[in-house]
Write a structure and sequence with these properties.
Blueprint lengths: L8 H10 L9 H13 L7 H8 L3 H14 L3 E4 L2 E4 L1 H7 L16
Antiparallel strand pairs: 1-2
Helix pairs in contact: 2-3
């Protein structure tokens, strides 16, 4: 409506900005999910139910809507012990990697 029916890169960019979608395609819920893992659970591992309780959202929504995209782009990995944020997620959100026991700031992919 605002662009007389013509969608340009600039118009699309403004629309995505208004919806809270960043340059990596993450929306507000995606960022809340990752931020919870990083800030509340030190990068993981953490279970989906715990993340859901932390961000006050439904675990089913996170499993069906949020997690598949984050797995696909490599920002989250699943393990038998829970979800972990990857170094790419830390970088995207501007968080420093935690120091590992050996003193190296790296997380497994």
């Amino acid at each position: 409506m605002k662009a007389d029916g013509i969608v340009t890169a600039e118009v699309a960019g403004r629309a995505l900005d208004q919806e809270g979608v960043d340059e990596a395609g993450l929306d507000r819920l995606d960022r809340r999910f990752l931020t919870a893992i990083i800030e509340n659970y030190k990068g993981g591992p953490v279970g989906l139910e715990a993340i859901a309780a932390t961000i006050n959202d439904e675990a089913e929504t996170l499993a069906e809507v949020v997690e598949p995209f984050l797995l696909k782009i490599g920002y989250v990995v699943r393990s038998p012990t829970g979800r972990r944020a990857t170094s790419a997620a830390y970088a995207h959100l501007g968080h420093a990697l935690p120091a590992s026991p050996g003193g190296q700031g790296q997380l497994p992919l």
